[in-house]
Amino acid sequence: MTIGVMMDLFWILFNGNPQLFYQFLNIPFALLLYYLARQGYLSIVSRHACLTLGGFVLAIATMGPYSVLLFFSVCLSLSLSHFLEPVHIHRWTFGLQMCWQTFWHCYIQFQLYWLQETPDSRLLLATSALMLMTQRVSSLSLDLQERTVLRGFQKNTISFLSYLFCFPSLLGGPLCSFDTFAGSVRQMSRTPPLATCVGNLASKTLQVLLLLLMKYFLNLLMKSPNTLKVNRCAFQDILGIWILALLLKMNYYAHWKVSECVNNAAGMGLRGNNRTGKASWDGLSDGNPWVTEMSSRPSVFAREWNRTTAEWLRRMIFQRFDRSPLFMTFGFSAWWHGLHPGQILGFLMWAATVEGDYKLHRFLKPKLTSLWRKRLYVCLNWTFTQLTTTCVVVCVELQSLASVRLLCSSYFAVFPLLSVLSIIIL
């Protein structure tokens, strides 16, 4: 009876999020790989082969025929890296990969808005994995162009395949450089004892369950009468949409933590020892939910939100444009996410919010001469960060024009305008 209740609860928590469910199922296989490597049964080449084979099987099992999307990307990247000069690798790889990804995003939009059909869940999962594949392919191609991994890459193609097809990161990241990945694979046999890894894994799994429980109760709260009903007082209106955004963010936080668990279970992500002498397994992480939510500035929130993707966008776009690098970065992020109407508006609002935060901070910083002013500034800025990021999350996650109409019919429409006004005035 107890097992049945636990299984029912398990299904309720993961229902509606198959990607998170499949990632969670990867943990036993990752632990098996870690145990075999720790006991010395697997050489470095064998570890790369197991990671590649695991990703290949996972893609076919979860995506079916749509796993071809990933196979094509890997074959294209492999071919370009062997036949092009290093100076041209990144431009061609990044460009063709984005064209391939955009084609499938446009196909999904064609199904949604023209045919009025719900896309196949396996196609949605494949396009999500394809976005992560774009990160790894472009990151590796830039490393090859900069000649930071050229020698080691040419010697062993299996390491290239395992980096792209690594099953702990296939469905959920986090992104790391090729050198970091290769170093993690090499150190699998030199990591702390299995009991230490299992203890860390148990702690992070508990965090995942707590996040999913919070998501479950927030979902119940959203289903209560009048939660999102319009024509209410301003406080009720803002509170209802803020709860909706928090519910949407819980999906990300749980997914990041599960992906971190899978990588740790495979023996990857060991940063070293912390100040207390215990092993720190936070080397591969997309972010800490508490740190992200406590960000007191929109620009800090943008850097902490999906940290490895933010670093990838900085390297790929922000550092390569002299004019309006911030808006170029957020515009490209909207393209990478799929260019749905809500996403375009959401990322433009996010760019305006971050730009406004920079200008406002430069203007007010010299005036924060006392402790109470600094504390008041932090509190007010935290509140404003929560309100503006709520607008962004609702637009981006709901994607359609309905999310835009939802915000326009609420009091939340005021907060993005404040960011635009601060840019104009300051």
Description:
Helix 3 (44-63) crosses helix 8 (157-165), helix 11 (234-265) packs across helix 17 and helix 16 packs antiparallel against helix 17. By secondary structure, the chain is mostly helical. The chain has helices spanning 2-14, 18-38, 44-63, 68-83, 86-114, 121-145, 150-155, 157-165, 178-186, 194-222, 234-265, 289-293, 298-304, 307-316, 325-337, 341-364, 371-398, 401-408, 414-425, and strands at residues 272-273, 279-280. It is 74% helix and 1% strand. The chain is built from 19 helices and 2 strands. Residues 1-8 have low confidence and may be disordered. The radius of gyration is 22 Å and the shape is globular. Strands 1-2 form a two-stranded antiparallel ribbon.
For the biggest β-sheet, the strand order reads 1-2
The Rg value, from CA coordinates, equals 22 Å
Average pLDDT for all residues: 85
Name the overall outline. Answer: globular
**How is the biggest beta sheet arranged?**
2 strands, antiparallel
Write the layout of secondary structure elements.
Blueprint: H1 2-14, H2 18-38, H3 44-63, H4 68-83, H5 86-114, H6 121-145, H7 150-155, H8 157-165, H9 178-186, H10 194-222, H11 234-265, E1 272-273, E2 279-280, H12 289-293, H13 298-304, H14 307-316, H15 325-337, H16 341-364, H17 371-398, H18 401-408, H19 414-425
Antiparallel strand pairs: 1-2
Helix pairs in contact: 2-11, 3-8, 4-5, 4-6, 5-6, 10-11, 11-17, 15-16, 16-17, 16-19, 17-18
